């Protein structure tokens, strides 16, 4: 057990007899100390009826006559299946809980309970005790749309799959090759039956292809959708003609099979990308859900955030987020603005200073007069910048659509030429059937599966490596990248203070000094204090002087820690000069003499150097772009061997810089984490957010580095390159197959049976080739690490 | 072979039923989470330790309340 927090969680789990969680879990759980604190008082707000009403699911409560509320909670801290089991078991064991089921994909818990037996707040508090944080989830439009879209896709796929099997059964009897010797009436029945079953597939399942084709034709573009629609539409219309007249071939089996293969490919690609993406844009998460308002009579009342009005006075305790933009009325403190500016040290604030929504109050209690709320805040201004950047984002060309253009042109020209040749040599009806046979035979099934299958498998293997891809263009686009822009705080560094060095003065022991420093800092929420780690004992009569340091009694000594002047003032001795080394230096001293210097720094991630070296070895231009002060940025750039480094950049300037690079023709990949990076992330050709980034950054990035291991990015480059090779192989093979069968179809030698066989065989080959992408990755995840280390060494 | 005149319509009827059942399942959210059910069967529903703790918990529900305050 590393800390009291973990111990409490383990005790709660074992106390409920749920030890088998520890046998089954495959990932280590998150440190409970690192999770946001949930106040009991705030939880009780969720018991209020008017508050609950916002989150309750109406449809569900109607079914249950409104007796049992049903709510969706968003759970933080889920790492593996064992977590899901633990949460569900824990909740079901509570009296009054009717049902609890957790969706691991989107980390949403759907919960129904009896309101008269147990309160929602105590259920959430119980989850907190076993180490998970839960927030009521208010479904937004976008997430709902994605969910209905997914279901519609699945219905289309299911319809096509079931119909495909039935149609195949009916049409196989018609194949000449099987020589069934059917009577005319029987053949008629089978044709009509398969037409009946193909019709819903064409009109319902294939609707997205036709819509896409129409859109592309309007934009004067030839895409895969146009080619697909032409094949399906042509074969279907010819089939109707053949059914009514009772002459000629029906290709209904090919139509339904084609529809099913294609829909399956697209559905899988979609699902691979959407695994955890659904956790929607939750900007509100930066803001606290509630605030403490100071009433005109001086009493304080906790209210929901949206009940707050401009001009209200709110109280913000240390460790809480500031709910809205405002001005400090009373109190001195320092405020952690790292989410907005990237500056990792808290900034001292006094009465009269402005504060920004979404930043964290670190040291002392503050009373703030609200000046701007919601859309008017600085935070929202960044979101608007983000929207602008998104609309300006350049689109990367997709390989499949490029190939489709050439392919479609070739096929159309050939069809027209061959068709008119047959018309001239023979008659119109022969020419018509030849044209249909050519359209079906060259139907780009393998061609249109070539890229989705490769992308799906690559997305899956990258997810295993730790890179979650949320937008489709990443795998193709990453190969075209020329410039990599890195953010500093939280991306290259760990984004929190760590203790780097202790320099004790003569006659003092480093161990003892650290022990005392821990006792002093143990109660503080300041990021500097956290660097010292938790202590079992606390100092007595602790005093916090914001911006200066702490004073307290440790084991009989009165000690101070903080700025040298503050510490030396305790004993009237001159402040010792700062040691000559970079970092943030803190002095610990008693009334008689200084005891030790502590050096704190925001440490570089262990693989930052290796990653930069590996990127440069691939001839990529690496740029460091940070909102932090220039000297710090320059020093870090030197350490990492990056020649271009820009400091002091605010979100506007960062965006302008990236757009200037893009105007010069560079393809930019941006790796960042904070809210201040969000507009840049949105404008970069490819954006990658760190796993511990703010939600806003994560939902707007094209990919998320789940494990925050920087070298995964290098792995991803390698996987992307392999994916591209596989895609080109697939496209080449599919085009060759189609070109080879074209002359046969032109000579009238492709019957429906051969068309179906050729289509399945070539599609199968393409899929198997794409599956190679899963196998390779599992064997060699470690390889790039060693090679990268060699380069850096 | 005349039996086909009956069998083909029956086949169509069956596939319509199958599609209806599939749509019902999709609309009911049966396919919304394809990850966790695969793992959930691995966990023992009737873990003796868990059952014991649960019955204990049912006997003394009051023991939980002090913890709520300590949060």
From TrEMBL, chain A:
BP term (GO), one: copper ion homeostasis
Transmembrane segments: 157-175, 195-214, 226-244, 250-268, 403-425, 431-455, 726-747, 753-771
Main localization (coarse): membrane
Domain HMA: 69-135
SUPFAM superfamilies linked to this entry: Calcium ATPase, transduction domain A, Calcium ATPase, transmembrane domain M, HAD-like, HMA, heavy metal-associated domain
Membrane topology: Multi-pass membrane protein
InterPro entries: ATPase-cat-bd, ATPase_P-typ_cyto_dom_N, ATPase_P-typ_P_site, ATPase_P-typ_TM_dom_sf, ATPase_P-typ_transduc_dom_A_sf, ATPase_P-type_domA, HAD-like_sf, HAD_sf
The keyword Repeat is annotated on this UniProt entry: no
Keywords from the UniProt entry: ATP-binding, Cell membrane, Ion transport, Magnesium, Membrane, Metal-binding, Nucleotide-binding, Phosphoprotein, Translocase, Transmembrane, Transmembrane helix, Transport
UniProt KW Cell division keyword: no
A GO CC term assigned to this protein in UniProt: plasma membrane
A Gene Ontology molecular function term of the record: ATP hydrolysis activity
Compartment(s) where it occurs, according to its Swiss-Prot or TrEMBL record: Cell membrane
Similarity section: Belongs to the cation transport ATPase (P-type) (TC 3.A.3) family. Type IB subfamily.
Annotated protein name in UniProt: HMA domain-containing protein
Species, as recorded: marine sediment metagenome
Automatic annotation (TrEMBL), chain B:
Biased composition (Basic and acidic residues): 56-71
Signal peptide range in chain numbering: none
InterPro entries assigned: Cyt_oxidase_maturation_cbb3 (IPR004714)
Region (Disordered) residue spans: 52-71
Keyword Repeat: no
Residues spanning the membrane: 6-26
Pfam families, per the entry: FixS
KW Ribosomal protein (keyword) present: no
Keyword terms of this UniProt record: Membrane, Transmembrane, Transmembrane helix
Protein name: Cytochrome oxidase maturation protein, cbb3-type
Originating organism: marine sediment metagenome
């Amino acid at each position: 057990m590393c800390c009291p927090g973990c111990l409490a969680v383990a005790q709660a789990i074992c106390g409920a007899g749920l030890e088998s969680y520890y046998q089954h879990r495959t990932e280590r759980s998150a440190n409970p100390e690192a999770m946001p604190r949930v106040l009991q008082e705030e939880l009780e707000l969720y018991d209020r009826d008017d508050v609950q009403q916002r989150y309750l699911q109406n449809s569900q409560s109607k079914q249950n006559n409104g007796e049992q509320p049903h709510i969706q909670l968003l759970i933080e801290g889920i790492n593996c299946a064992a977590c899901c089991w633990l949460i569900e078991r824990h909740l079901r064991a509570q009296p009054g809980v009717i049902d609890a089921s957790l969706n691991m994909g989107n980390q949403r818990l759907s919960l129904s309970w009896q309101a008269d037996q147990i309160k929602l707040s105590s259920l959430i508090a119980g989850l907190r005790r076993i180490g998970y944080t839960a927030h009521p989830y208010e479904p937004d439009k976008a997430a709902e749309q994605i969910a209905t879209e997914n279901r519609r896709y699945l219905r289309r796929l299911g319809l096509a799959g079931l119909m495909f099997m039935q149609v195949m059964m009916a049409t196989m009897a018609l194949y000449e090759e099987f020589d069934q010797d059917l009577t005319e009436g029987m053949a008629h029945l089978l044709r009509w039956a398969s037409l009946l079953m193909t019709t819903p597939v064409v009109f319902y399942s294939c609707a997205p292809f036709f819509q896409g084709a129409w859109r592309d034709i309007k934009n004067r573009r030839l895409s895969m959708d146009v080619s697909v629609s032409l094949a399906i539409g042509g074969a279907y219309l010819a089939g109707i003609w053949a059914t009514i007249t009772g002459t000629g071939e029906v290709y209904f089996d090919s139509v339904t099979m084609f529809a099913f293969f294609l829909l399956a490919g697209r559905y899988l690609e979609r699902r691979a990308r959407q695994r955890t993406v659904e956790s929607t844009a939750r900007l509100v998460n930066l803001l606290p859900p509630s605030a403490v308002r100071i009433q005109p009579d001086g009493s304080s009342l906790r209210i929901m955030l949206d009940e707050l009005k401009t001009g209200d006075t709110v109280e913000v305790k240390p460790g809480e987020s500031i709910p809205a933009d405002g001005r400090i009325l009373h109190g001195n403190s320092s405020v952690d603005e790292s989410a907005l500016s990237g500056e990792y040290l808290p900034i001292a604030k006094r009465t009269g200073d402005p504060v920004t929504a979404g930043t964290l109050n670190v040291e002392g209690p503050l009373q703030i007069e609200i000046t701007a709320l919601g859309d008017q805040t600085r935070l929202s201004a960044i979101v608007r910048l983000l929207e602008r950047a998104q609309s300006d984002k350049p689109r990367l060309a997709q390989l499949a659509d490029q190939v489709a253009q050439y392919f479609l042109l070739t096929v159309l020209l050939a069809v027209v030429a061959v068709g008119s040749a047959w018309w001239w040599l023979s008659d119109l009806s022969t020419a018509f059937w030849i044209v249909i046979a050519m359209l079906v035979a060259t139907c780009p099934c393998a061609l249109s599966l070539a890229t989705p299958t490769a992308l799906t498998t690559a997305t899956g293997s990258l997810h295993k490596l730790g890179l979650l891809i949320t937008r489709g263009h990443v795998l193709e686009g990453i190969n075209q990248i020329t410039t990599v822009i890195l953010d500093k705080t939280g991306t290259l560094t760990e984004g929190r203070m760590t203790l780097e060095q202790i320099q004790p003065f003569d006659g003092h022991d480093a161990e003892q000094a650290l022990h005392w420093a821990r006792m002093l800092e143990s109660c503080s929420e300041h990021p500097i204090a956290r660097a010292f780690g938790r202590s079992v004992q606390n100092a007595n009569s602790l005093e916090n002087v914001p911006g200066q340091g702490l004073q307290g009694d440790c084991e009989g000594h009165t000690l101070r820690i903080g700025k040298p002047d503050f510490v030396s003032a305790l004993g009237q001795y001159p402040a010792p000069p700062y040691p000559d080394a970079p970092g943030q230096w803190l002095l610990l001293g008693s009334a008689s003499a200084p005891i030790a210097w502590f050096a704190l720094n925001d440490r570089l991630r262990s693989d930052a150097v290796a990653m930069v070296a590996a990127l440069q070895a691939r001839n990529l231009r690496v740029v460091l772009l940070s909102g932090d002060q220039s000297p710090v940025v320059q020093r870090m750039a030197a350490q990492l061997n990056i020649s271009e480094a820009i400091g002091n950049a605010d979100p506007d300037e960062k965006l302008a810089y990236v757009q200037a690079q893009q105007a010069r023709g560079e393809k930019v990949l941006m790796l960042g984490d904070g809210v201040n990076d969000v507009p840049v992330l949105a404008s970069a050709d490819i954006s990658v957010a760190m796993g511990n980034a703010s939600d806003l950054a994560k939902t707007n990035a094209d990919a998320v580095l789940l494990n925050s291991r920087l070298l995964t990015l290098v792995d991803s480059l390698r996987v992307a390159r392999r994916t591209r090779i596989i895609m080109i192989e697939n496209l080449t093979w599919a085009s060759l197959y189609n070109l080879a069968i074209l002359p046969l179809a032109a000579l009238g030698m492709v019957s429906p049976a051969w068309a179906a066989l050729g289509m399945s065989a070539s599609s199968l080959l393409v899929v198997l080739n794409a599956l190679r992408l899963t196998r390779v990755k599992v064997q060699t995840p470690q390889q790039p690490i060693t090679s990268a280390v060699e380069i850096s060494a | 072979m005349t039996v086909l005149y009956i069998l083909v319509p029956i086949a169509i009827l069956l596939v319509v039923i199958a599609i209806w059942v599939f749509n019902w399942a999709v609309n009911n959210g049966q396919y919304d989470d394809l990850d966790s059910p695969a793992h959930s069967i691995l966990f023992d529903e009737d873990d003796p330790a868990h059952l014991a703790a649960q019955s204990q918990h049912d006997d003394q529900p009051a023991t939980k309340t002090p913890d709520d305050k300590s949060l």
